[in-house]
Amino acid sequence: MQRRQVLKPMLKRCDWNTLGLDILKNVVFQVDFAEKKLNVLKELPDSNRPNPIRRLSPGHITIPLALGDKSTDVLYDTGSDATLIDSQFIENNSKLFSLVRSEDGFDAHWNRIPSKVYKTPTLKVGNLKMKDVEMAAFDFGSFMREKMEGAPIILGNNVITKGKWSFDLEKNQWALEVY
């Protein structure tokens, strides 16, 4: 597999280093958290079976995830430190979760959000299987639920950083190599 690398990309459209899906939509790319690299590939790696992507109307990526026997699409978000879950989803699937603690979280604008932290006994995304994954829960509200088009979970870095993720947005596919 031939690779080209992009190290520390920076686009001046906000105050942080960023490289968005608007730029990456025409290339096959791989996010390697262990090496802290973004690799541009010719195709998805052969070693991993491709999985389907669903794109939300703003362009965000959703991928399928299983919590116990319940499957749902989740928003893939490298900008989220923790995995976030809509409290309404927990209410509707209470057998899948146990309360760990209450704490204050923060949104992208550093506004304080009171939340409860739950754990789920099993989480499976692609070939990654995890136990006792913690998720911060709060009420997403109707506006956020509408924008997320039914995806009740924002998959954050406590899960995402456990593997090397490859995406082919033209074919709407992704693959994961677990570390």
Q: Give the SSE string.
A: EHEEEEEEEHEEEHEHEE
Helix content range of the residues, please? 10-25%
Per DSSP E runs of 2 or more residues, the count of β-strands stands at: 14
Number of helices: 4
Question: Which CATH C-level class is it?
Answer: Mainly Beta
Give the terminus-to-terminus CA distance: 18 Å
Strand order of the largest sheet: 1-3-2-13-14-4
> What is the arithmetic mean of pLDDT?
87
Share of residues in strands: over 45%
From the alpha carbons, calculate the radius of gyration and give it in angstroms: 16 Å
What do you see in this structure?
The protein has 179 residues and is mainly β. It has a single domain (3-178), classed as Acid Proteases (Cathepsin D, subunit A, domain 1, Beta Barrel), CATH 2.40.70. It has helices spanning 21-24, 87-92, 141-147, 157-160; strands at 3-6, 28-32, 37-41, 51-52, 54-55, 61-67, 70-76, 84-86, 98-106, 112-125, 128-138, 153-155, 163-168, 173-178. Strands 1-3-2-13-14-4 form a six-stranded antiparallel sheet, with no helix packed on it. Strands 6-7-12-8-11-10 form a six-stranded mixed β-barrel. A hairpin with a 2-residue loop joins β10 and β11 (128-138). The longest helix has 7 residues, at 141-147. The protein starts with a strand and ends with a strand. Mean pLDDT is 87; it is low at 10-18.
